[in-house]
């Protein structure tokens, strides 16, 4: 059976074109709206680093004033040369909307990570509650770091007062670096030498991350793949991290940055001393 031949008038073609055009515009509008519609995601990226042996911010911005990160009274304090940098990650604010276009842009970037909103900000918490939680974790971290450092050095906490000040930074992940900073300022590497030769760092720029408890146990904190980039950006050549996070640390590891995994404060101090002397075993991922 042959098909029935037919033809379309110019007016019919015109009507069809109009319909197709309208449909195309509607689809584009829908895709455009989807592209800008908010999604339940947060974008994370490398944050600030701060030398626990120095002042922060360094250098101070206009209208700001630098404050010594670690201040110690009741015991002689060394003049250090190197750096022991705590590292952070930053994230879009909890009230910010992330669109599909934002997510597509950030997804392949090596210095950004797209994660579920709830992985960063617990459901039901507003900005003030999130900040309060982070600040409490930071306070607990500072207390644990002080206890771990003084216990390592066999110093009486009732005679040595340690004050840690780091504005606008929250969470527990700076514990290990705070602890090492306290030890370096009080005793260095234990050799009694002045300057870099007596530092835990040997004058080098060392960065790291890891939660610590009063017993000196180091535990994982997350965000390591972004923290290594913050460390490298700010000149670090060594990065201390919890051993359990080696896999994340090796992801996109910047050139020239050496990973040193640890599980305890003792291991961290021993690794820094081995790096300085060139003898002994330095852990690796």
Question: Could you walk me through the main structural features you see in this protein, from its secondary elements to its overall organization?
Answer:
By secondary structure, the protein is of the alpha/beta class. The chain has a domain at 46-89 and 126-277: Ribosomal Protein S5, domain 2. The protein contains eight helices and 14 strands. It has helices spanning 10-36, 100-106, 117-120, 127-152, 175-186, 224-233, 246-250, 265-277; strands at 38-39, 41-51, 55-56, 67-68, 70-73, 83-91, 98-99, 113-116, 161-164, 205-208, 211-212, 218-219, 238-242, 258-262. The strands form five sheets. It has a six-stranded mixed sheet. The protein has a two-stranded antiparallel ribbon with strand order 1-7. The protein is globular, with a radius of gyration of 27 Å. One of its GO terms (biological process) is proteolysis. GO terms for molecular function: peptidase activity.
Could you give the topology of this structure?
Layout: H1 10-36, E1 38-39, E2 41-51, E3 55-56, E4 67-68, E5 70-73, E6 83-91, E7 98-99, H2 100-106, E8 113-116, H3 117-120, H4 127-152, E9 161-164, H5 175-186, E10 205-208, E11 211-212, E12 218-219, H6 224-233, E13 238-242, H7 246-250, E14 258-262, H8 265-277
Parallel strand pairs: 6-10, 10-13, 13-14
Antiparallel strand pairs: 1-7, 2-6, 2-8, 3-4, 5-9, 11-12
Strand content: 15-25%
In order across it, which strands form the biggest sheet?
Answer: 8-2-6-10-13-14
Q: What's the Cα radius of gyration?
A: 27 Å
Helix residue percentage: 25-40%
The fold-level CATH name of the domain at 46-89 and 126-277 is Ribosomal Protein S5, domain 2
Shape call: globular
CATH architecture of the domain at 46-89 and 126-277: 2-Layer Sandwich
Measured distance between first and last alpha carbons:
75 Å
Please describe the biggest sheet, giving its number of strands, its sense, and whether it closes into a barrel.
Answer: 6 strands, mixed
Number of helices: 8
Question: Which stretches are low in confidence, meaning pLDDT under 50 for 5 or more residues running?
Answer: 1-36
Overall mean confidence score, pLDDT: 86
Q: Please write the string of helix (H) and strand (E) elements.
A: HEEEEEEEHEHHEHEEEHEHEH
- The helix/strand class is alpha/beta
Mind telling me the CATH class of the domain at 46-89 and 126-277? Alpha Beta
β-strand number:
14
């Amino acid at each position: 059976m042959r098909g029935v031949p037919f033809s379309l008038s110019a007016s019919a073609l015109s009507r069809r074109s109009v319909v197709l055009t309208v449909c195309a515009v509607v689809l584009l509008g829908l895709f455009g709206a989807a592209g800008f519609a908010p999604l339940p995601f947060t974008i994370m990226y490398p944050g600030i680093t701060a030398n626990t042996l120095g002042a922060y911010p360094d250098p101070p911005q206009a209208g700001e004033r630098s404050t010594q990160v670690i201040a110690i009274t009741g015991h002689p304090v060394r003049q250090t040369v190197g750096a022991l940098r705590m590292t952070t990650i930053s994230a879009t604010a909890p009230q910010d909307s992330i669109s599909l276009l934002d997510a597509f842009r950030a997804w392949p970037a090596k210095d950004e990570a797209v994660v579920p909103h709830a992985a960063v900000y617990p459901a039901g918490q507003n900005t003030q509650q999130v900040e309060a939680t982070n600040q409490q974790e930071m306070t607990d971290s500072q207390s644990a770091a002080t206890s771990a450092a003084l216990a390592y050095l066999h110093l009486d906490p009732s005679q040595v007062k340690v004050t840690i000040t780091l504005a606008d930074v929250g969470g527990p992940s700076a514990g290990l670096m705070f602890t090492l900073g306290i030890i370096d300022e009080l005793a260095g590497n234990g050799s009694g030498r002045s300057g870099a030769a007596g530092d835990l760092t040997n004058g080098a720029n060392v960065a790291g991350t890891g939660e610590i408890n009063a017993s000196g146990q180091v535990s994982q904190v997350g965000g390591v793949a972004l923290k290594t980039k913050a460390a490298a950006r700010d000149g670090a050549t060594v990065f201390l991290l919890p051993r359990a996070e080696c896999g994340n640390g090796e992801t996109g590891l910047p050139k020239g940055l050496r990973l040193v995994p640890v599980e305890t404060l003792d291991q961290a101090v021993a690794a820094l001393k081995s790096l300085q002397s060139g003898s002994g075993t330095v852990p690796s991922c």
